[in-house]
Amino acid sequence: MHTDVLVYGLLLWTLVASRHGRAYDDMGFVRTNMTHFLVNRRPFSLNGFNAYWLMYVASFPEEGRSMVSSTFQEASTHGLTLARTWAFRDGGYRPLQRSPGVYDEDMFQGLDYVISEANKYGIYLVLSLANNFESFGGRTQYIQWARDEGRNLSSDDDFYRDEVVKRFYKNHVTAILTRVNTITGVAYKDEAAIFAWELLNEPRCETDLSGRTLQAWIEEMAAHVKSIDSNHLLEVGLEGFYGETIPEKKKMNLGYELGTDFISNNLVQGIDFATIHAYPDTWMPGSTEQTQMAFLQSWIQSHVEDADAVLRKPLLISEFGKSSRLSNCRGDEEAALFTTVYDAIYASARGGGPCRGGIFWHLLSGAQEMEGLRDGYEVVFSESPSLGQIISNQSHRISNLNGGSETKKQLRPALQSGN
């Protein structure tokens, strides 16, 4: 135990030394080549975290921004190089988008700050553009805005069909992509710290299980994003559930029928890489830990194989975690889940496969003001040093896979020099 703590401390010291006080104005745009991410034309893998709350908290200029900065600093000391967060708050309390096309400047400046801090700490961002669920507005808010204009809409799934709603969404995409950062002076579409755009967090269309409705929407919106921004990667935001393209794969869905199709949705022109989520405790309530872990391994392996053989695109596990609020959840079970996910990512990346990173759900600082954001899946480094060590170890071996590249020289100069 004492040896592990010492090694952990030395690793964190090295990472802090490599990152502290340096701005990363030379972060390169991320590209893809078949199943690889590339930075400066060299293969690149990542280790990351979700922090959906960054923009909202950063909209409070004093105490909020200090919490955002400390979170990026903590992430940096653990070697994390990717953060996924929301670029939306539609209607409701302290919105980004008050009404269609009308934005709150204080909230937008919060997002400006998040992007500038990500650049400062050498952490790329995946920015999600809207939510499938009602939280923070989501499809429900877009539907209500259209109803306010006289549209007769019966379902949140009309988000994918109605021309007025689609216009609202496209206008939001345009507003985000063309926003000029008030801190850096750089338009978002030209900001290298942005890794990728995400069309929608966990899209689902349960009124059309054929998948045709969602497929058409993805095709239309991918084309719209790419017509504005050719610098950045784009992904859908999928959880990974299969559809009719490979019917025999639907047995992996655990009975969920959501109108999505991991294969056809990710084969859309303009979609640069695939994503999956992994929540076996939530998806398999009442099952044993052994059953959940066996499913997790099969779930990841199936998508790795399909990303490699069918999609020929990179794959990110863009959400995964284990809830402390569910019965019988112990720290060692959370550690086992993280280790299983990380080992699968590392094995794929080391072997030249498509799975190139994982983004756990979700990182919080230990500040008292963050208490309301706890959902059972939170990772607070100060409270979970053993899990922090697992995360740092993954960052370290992922960094070694990037060894000798310009990316490693940019992000980890102390490790590169052997300090």
How would you describe this protein?
The chain is an alpha/beta fold and 419 residues long. It has one domain: Alpha-Beta Barrel (TIM Barrel), CATH 3.20.20. It contains 14 helices and 13 strands. The strands form 3 sheets. Strands 10-9-8-5-4-13-12-11 form an 8-stranded parallel sheet. It has a 3-stranded antiparallel sheet with strand order 1-2-3, with no helix packed on it. Strands 6-7 form a two-stranded antiparallel sheet. β1 (30-33) and β2 (36-39) form a beta hairpin. The radius of gyration is 20 Å and the shape is globular. Residues 1-25 and 404-419 have low confidence and may be disordered. One of its GO terms (molecular function) is mannan endo-1,4-beta-mannosidase activity. Residues 29-362 form the Glycoside hydrolase family domain. InterPro entries: GH, Glyco_hydro_5, MAN-like.
Quaternary state of the chains: single chain
What is the CA-based Rg, rounded? 20 Å
CATH architecture name: Alpha-Beta Barrel
* Biggest β-sheet: strands ordered side by side in the sheet: 10-9-8-5-4-13-12-11
Helix content: 40-55%
* Average residue pLDDT: 91
Taken as a percent bin, the fraction of beta residues is 5-15%
Q: Any idea of the CATH class?
A: Alpha Beta
CATH superfamily: Glycosidases
Which blocks of ≥5 consecutive residues have pLDDT under 50? 1-25, 404-419
Can you write the helix and strand succession as a string?
HEEEEHHEEEHEHHEHEHEHHEHEHHH
What is the rounded distance between the termini? 24 Å
Shape descriptor: globular
- Largest beta sheet, briefly? 8 strands, parallel
